[in-house]
Hints:
37% of the residues lie in helices and 23% in strands. It is of the alpha/beta class.
Amino acid sequence: MYTIKPETIKALALDLDGTTLRPDNTLSARTIRALKICIDRGIRVIICTGRSIGAAEPYRLALGAVGPMVYFNGAEVVDMPGGKLLNTAFLDREVLDFCVDLSRNQGIYFQVYFPVPSGESGAPTAAGELLMAERQSEETEMYRKHTGIQAVIGDLKAAIPGQQGCIKSMFITDPATQDLIRPKLIEQFGSRVYVTRTHPAFLEILHPRASKGLGLQHAMSYLNLAPAELIAFGDEENDLPLFTTAGFSAAPANAKESVRKAANMVIGSNGEDGVAAFLEEVLIHFKGH
Length: 289
């Protein structure tokens, strides 16, 4: 039985969707309260999400969390709220070109986050984000409702040559179609791509140095944290690298089976405020406080 020493915990690595957020993509009052207590006690909250900075920002603000955050599944690590860019890993144009062809030939919805330079001098800051797709569809609207980000419609083939790469790209389709896409990408590019499912409908393609685990490592280095000082929470395939990076891992009861099996502990579902209940029991109400 794996036990936590509450007094040694200095940070929480939190996935948002399916883990910390309720099924309606909101933060409950209970979860906000529990995480704010942890922050007040000096425990860092490191958001580790597939979301863009803009799509994650309302949750960070609600918690009052500051410091390094992992966005786009690790493609960007940013010190917030200042926006200091700590690490980037952008997917190259050849991979994008292949994905656009696959999307067009198979009629599968595909979208890309391109970096938009801030134009500011001095220390590197997080780039702006341009989400682009080739057609308006039910997938476009579904993603907008999920994240609040509206895709700009345009010709991706025409846009790619003017870009240094992309922050992340994504097919939005059913799991069966994802299972057909993944081997094509691996066969074509091998270790040059990182392909991961982040939601039942989202198959993301990123640079191989972009993962939540690698992003968390950058955040840990920035904060001088050891693995034993972190607890990681996640529910999907893309959260597994968090589990191998942090000293302790917890998955909500609604998590994918493989994620539950990989976690040190299964906690209550996101619909039951499982993260908050765990924090209350293990960190907030333990005898040291």
